[in-house]
Amino acid sequence: MSAAWEVVIGLETHVQLQTQSKIFSGASTAFGAAPNAQACAVDLALPGVLPVLNKAAVECAIKFGLAIDAQIAPRSVFARKNYFYPDLPKGYQISQFELPVVSGGSLSVQVGQGDQAYEKTIQLTRAHLEEDAGKSLHEDFQGKTGIDLNRAGTPLLEIVTEPDMRSAAEAVAYAKALHALVMWIGICDGNMQEGSFRCDANVSVRRPGAPLGTRREIKNLNSFRFLQQAIEYEINWQIETLEEGGRIQQATVLFDPDTGETRAMRSKEDAQDYRYFPDPDLLPLEISADWIARSRASLPELPAAMRTRFQTDYGLSAYDAATLTASQVMARYFEESVAAAGKPQAKLCANWIMGELSARLNKEALEIAAAPVPPLQLARLVQRIADNTISGKIAKDVFEALWSGDGDEVDAIIEAKGLKQITDSSAIEAIIDEVLAAHPKSVEEFRAGKDKAFNALVGQAMKATKGKANPQQVNELLKKKLG
Q1: Contact predicate 1/239, CB 8 Å
Q2: What's the angle, vertex CA 326, arms to CA 204 and CA 348, rounded to 5?
Q3: For residue 225, how many other CB atoms are within 10 A of its CB?
């Protein structure tokens, strides 16, 4: 992307709240039921029915507001958002407009990896409660469209950011951090395939220092990969359009994963087009200070606080701490490993979890909760590296045995496979003497100033011991022998 343009991105995220029943009715929110099996009279908007607010949905909103250090409104109001669509039987959606339940707050995220990583704080505008609409089904209806109202009335928390993000990478980092947070505090199951977490991205471009450009909203992105692809395509499309003398028109667009392109769906509506007005069937929502205090007491340690603690207590870097607190399950795995291995081995535990363990989990598409190597055995593995029983290289063989089920206890695997590291200096020295005698050419090259020859000799020594010699001792003794 050209430095002549600045990207401006804001996200609106619909988080399905983890309640047993819908936000204004007693119908079930369970996923996978037959079409319209979970649509009751309230969801269908039959004459004479009245909505009743689900207290559990409000609890979820309060917890989220506390987790992002936002303001919880002591009094908020539900409004009717009027529009007509086949899967909206009322002809309006119950939402919140002028007085949302949560205002402000922020979320700090880690963008990038390693030395390129940096922290970015995204300011949030608001989070408000609303009901979901139904779903239009276009498949297998002989050219017709079917309507499934099972989702109608499902409780959502719509979370809106300020236009603070300047790249697709920042938007994805924010979305991942938000996804982790709502699962961490137990208000959402995070299942993106089932529609529990969906993002809309508002994207515009401008010359640096210029007023905000015209934005286009990409709707219903239900994977982080699609979010990144859609934003990157939209950025490039807008810049090319403007550089060719065209104009950007405010619009709602959809992303097509098959083509990797966005396409306009309709011209973008403004708030006045929805004719919002307070819902006459619902009283204002009043939240007491006691209610907020009870919700605060029920929250677990939050990711930001845990990141700080990991850096302070275990001496981890900001990047390591952020990676290990990406989910509650991973953070728990790390702490259980350190508890068994000992605090001095915290960094080594972190390296193995972020390295070998995560690589295998990714390769086999497993969650860390399903890892065949439990925290206690990872801790034993780390201990045996630390006390020089095995080398880091041999530890990978032990890890492989644990993972594949070829043994379930580190010490037993080391013993059975004869993997114990050779640390007897006299034994290593005898092997080095044999290597030097067998490779006089490498010795001459090293003495002629070729450093690669030294590495070759180390390799031969390790090969002679089948990788069991302590590499540090091999290096030291070889340097001593070579003068």
Answers
A1: yes
A2: 130
A3: 10
Q: Which residue's structure tokens are 């013993």?
A: 415
What local confidence, expressed as pLDDT, does residue 141 receive? 67
Q: Please tell me the distance from the alpha carbon of residue 96 to that of residue 75, in angstroms, as a whole number.
A: 12
What is the residue type of 415?
A: E
Continuous H helices in 87-223:
168-184
Residue pair 110/307 in contact by the 8 Å Cβ criterion: no
Nearest Cα to Cα of residue 310 among 262, 267, 353: 353
* CA proximity to 337, closest of 250, 280, 399: 399
Alpha helices by DSSP H, listed for 203-275, are 224-243
Give the integer Cα–Cα distance in Å for 321 and 15.
Answer: 26
Distance of CA 95 to the CA centre of its chain: 27
The C-alpha atoms of residue 298 and residue 279 are separated, in whole angstroms, by 31
Low-confidence ranges of the chain (pLDDT < 70): 1-2, 140-141, 268-272, 422-424, 449, 483
3-state class (DSSP) for residue 81: strand
| Dmax (CA) of the chain | 98
CB 131 within 8 A of CB 23: yes
Got the DSSP string for 109-128?
EEESSGGG-EEEEEEEEEEE
149 closest CA partner among 161, 137, 160, 134:
134
Strands, DSSP E only, in 222-302?
251-256, 261-267, 277-278, 285-286
- Which are the contacts of 115, defined by CB distance < 8 A and separation ≥ 6? none
Whole-Å CA distances, 458 to 166, 438, 439, 446: 49, 13, 11, 12
State the pLDDT at residue 193: 92
457 token code pair? 């000799």
Share in percent of the chain as helix, strand, coil (round to 5): 40, 20, 40
Sign of CA dihedral 86, 87, 92, 97: negative
Residues 303 and 184: their CA atoms lie apart, in Å, by 8
Total-model pTM? 0.85
Chain mean position to CA 177: 5
Helix (H, G, I), strand (E, B) or coil at 97: coil
| Per-residue pLDDT reduced to its tens digit, 404-449 | 999 889 999 998 988 887 666 777 777 887 877 888 777 777 777 6
